[in-house]
Please model this.
Amino acid sequence: MRMTPFLRLLAVGLVAAFTVNIARGADQPQWGERYSRNMVSTEKNLPETFDPAGGKNVKWSETIGGRTYSTPIIAGGKVFVGTNNERARDMRRKGDLGVLMCFNESDGKLIWQLVTPKLLQDRYLDWPRIGICSPPTIEGDRVYVVTNRAEVVCLDINGQSDGNDGPFKDEAKFMTQGDATPVKLGKLDADIIWRFDMPSQAGIWPHDSAHSSIMIVGNHLYLNTGNGTDNTHRKIRRPNGPCLIVLDKASGKLLAADAEKIGPRIFHAAWSSPSMGEVDGKRQVYLGGPDGVVYAFEPAASDAAPSNKPIGLKRIWRFDCDPSAPKVNVHKYIKNRQAGPSVIYGMPVFHKNRLYVTHGGDVWWGKRRSWIKCLDPTKTGDVTRTALTWSRELVSHCTATPAISGGLMYVGDLGGNIHCLDAETGKTVWTHKTNGAVYASALVADSKVYVGTQKSQFLIFAAGREKKVLADVKLDSPIHAPAAAANKTVYIATMKKIYAIAKSDK
Model:
């Protein structure tokens, strides 16, 4: 079966958690550090090695689907991961479905799951066997996630075990493909509170599969839409569709959207999730555009209310990561490996009044060039010529979200290299050659760097200027999702299994 670009790029967040305020301070309720999206955890007492075969430091492991691109999320005593239905856990619901699984944090027991049928009109809308690729974001007893059908759904964290809460009551039909007879709801099923369909309600056209990590800011949800090309890869079906939207978290109503008219410049799809930083006492919302441009917006007003026409987000500045690249008729560069536009799939990361972003040619359809850039976000207007602090070109595509800690940046590339760079200058501190492409973003936690590869290799490094490999572990299948840390445990999702790794005397 042909592998689409999207399958390889989901480590971006690709992707894609220590931030939303809930009762358990050591949880990881969303992808990336609060607002900034920096893949750094304050968790301590984490293992520096483990052995899946012998069981050393393996708290539990569970079979999930057959293709998993969603990073684990941990909150309220539960562990969530998006996957497909290749290894069905509910025999009432079989076939090609998207699945969000909810496990018990202590022992890995499956508690409930959301299953979503496929969009069958066109395989490029919802690629076969992909499943739910987006990581959820959790606040209190609410779980927010984007399904494989580009729907935003709000779920009860307890599933159907405490009854079917409203206003949405038609879960049985929601989880049924086409005109098939719905299966009666059971305790293993999810409880949907509300649903927002981005294709019909936001006017977008999804491509391959949706990937978005929702960012909660007060009463609002910020997320990228996944608007992209059609099955020809040469046409944008919804050129007026937004790339960034804001929803009311209580009702799912559309409040605001970008007004940048990015659509005609989309080379593939809007897969980079938003982040946020505070500059001179004012918040800025960042979007890595599918046109290779980083946009900074003022947040929507805290009292913004739903209306027939969403508010246009006010742009503060824009930075073109690749100013010499083409900006019109971009799809004539499809399959051109020498020239063409840049795209952004990793999230922009805000750290110490700087913004870090990876960009470059599309992995499957574009030029073979990529960069890491550090920007000064304190300026306004078109800052393409004034905001660049440093730029570093790499020899292979780099689509991951960088992790910055202790003055160092850690990021992998598709050539199989792990880079440790000086965050102030971009200069190389050390590199490490792995056995395969690195799509997964690195996680820094407890003075260690955790990262997996496409060739099933999981590496643990000592964080710092001296390269030191603490562990090199062979797992069961490829790793495309970043690891997560919560409550003295590291969670690793491979294509087929999820591992809970914690220190143990056993």
